[in-house]
Predict the 3D structure of the following.
Amino acid sequence: DAMVIQNPRYQVTQFGKPVTLSCSQTLNHNVMYWYQQKSSQAPKLLFHYYDKDFNNEADTPDNFQSRRPNTSFCFLDIRSPGLGDAAMYLCATSGAGTGSYEQYFGPGTRLTVT
Amino acid sequence: AQKVTQAQTEISVVEKEDVTLDCVYETRDTTYYLFWYKQPPSGELVFLIRRNSFDEQNEISGRYSWNFQKSTSSFNFTITASQVVDSAVYFCALSGQGAQKLVFGQGTRLTINP
C-alpha cells in the first residue's frame, strides 16, 4: 500500500547530541511536511518542501534543519536537542498543486531527550 | 489570519450515543479547504474528510457525517451510534488557497465508554 513511513518510531537521544529523523513516501506527492506535536497540543508546522523549495516557518528554531534529497525522502535534523524538543514528530505529504490537498501523515517518531 | 476553534476540549459519552464535534473557522480567503483528522492513541493522524469552500453539501460516510455551513463558518462532525473504537482526539483543520499549510484547531478528545 502507498504510504508515509517514518523511522525510527521511537528515538532516544542525549541532551545536545545531534539526531536525524527520517521520512519516506510512496505516494509520489510533491509536498512534504514536518510537524512537532507536544502532549495535548495540536501539531505545529516546522517547515515544508514544495518540490525542492524549502519553506521554513518563522518561529521554527534554527536548531531544526531539513533535507529532501529526492521526491521520496525527507529528513529532520535536530542539531543540539534540548529537553524542550522532546515531542512526537510527524511527517506528512500532500499532492498540493495537483489538486489533492489533504495531507497524509506517517505514524510519527516519538523523541525522548535525556 | 486563519484560525480554527474547537471549543470542546473533551467529550465523554456512552457507547451507541450520537455525538457532535464542533468546529468554527475564520479566514479571509474566498477559496479554502476544511478537514477533519482522527488521532487514535497510536499517534498517527488519519485523514477523514476534505471539504472545499464552494461545496456546501453535507456528507455522510457510514456512521460519520459532516455539516458545513458557510453562514456560520462551521464544519461540524457527527458520529452516530458511537463505538469504543471511535475514542481518539479529533482535529479540525483549515487551509487557504494554494492549500499548502494546515491550520489546526486544538483538538477534541472523545472518549466512548462501554
User: Anything to note?
Assistant: The interface with chain A takes residues 33, 35, 37, 42-47, 50, 91, 95, 98-102, 104-107 of chain B (CB under 8 Å). Chain B has no helices and twelve strands.
